[in-house]
Design goal:
Layout (H helix, E strand, L loop, with lengths): L3 E6 L1 H5 L12 E2 L2 E2 H4 L2 H6 L1 H17 L4 H8 L5 E6 L5 H5 L4 E3 L2 E8 L6 E3 L17 E5 L9 H9 L3 E5 L21 E4 L12 E4 L3 H12 L2
Helix pairs in contact: 5-8
Length: 228
Amino acid sequence: MKRKLVVLTGAGISAESGLKTFRDADGLWEGYDVMEVATPEAWNRNPELVQRFYNERRKQVLQAKPNEAHLALAALQNDFDVEIITQNIDDLHERAGSEKVTHLHGVITYAQSSKNADLIYPIDGEEIKMDEVCELGSPLRPHVVWFGEAVPMMEVAAKICRKADVFVLIGSSLAVYPAAGLVHYVSNQIPKFIIDPKIPDLDGLNHLTKIQKNATEGVRDLIKYLKI
């Protein structure tokens, strides 16, 4: 039986594919104040602006390609039972070939009902148009968890973390909760690795190896540590 390798990824892994996060620029995301485009209040106030913003982000995601780190994690499925938990809203892990991916914050290539978040639809093309509605007749919005909304996949992710035989954190500052709390569901007895140019404070975690590099370089080192 393969050991279960659980990988929690953040914005740092997608940054190397050219996708930026709002944390790169003090609360601005591609020149937008995130409170104006990434909250339920923003949607209620100006849905056209929010829709346009995410349509632009979706185009960027579709143009981006999985990088070496995404591809290497997919290749690790040959030796481990790999489960990826990602804070990212892109689909680069899936396009790289990873089969078990849990998205904490939704997936930008899907739309959801603005009335019932359980009604989720794949997007045909790059845009959600303002006249597109769900089966209940309410407008479609991006399938993205906004600030102030619950994170519905947290319980699923916590269960995955509890079962880890090896745990890896890549490209996350652990600044966004509740996702940052997932490390506390991992057994203290298993090996843990963190890959990031700026290692967040993880004092108190046992059996921790710090790899202070970007995602693509760091995953190369990880594979050496795992002795594959």
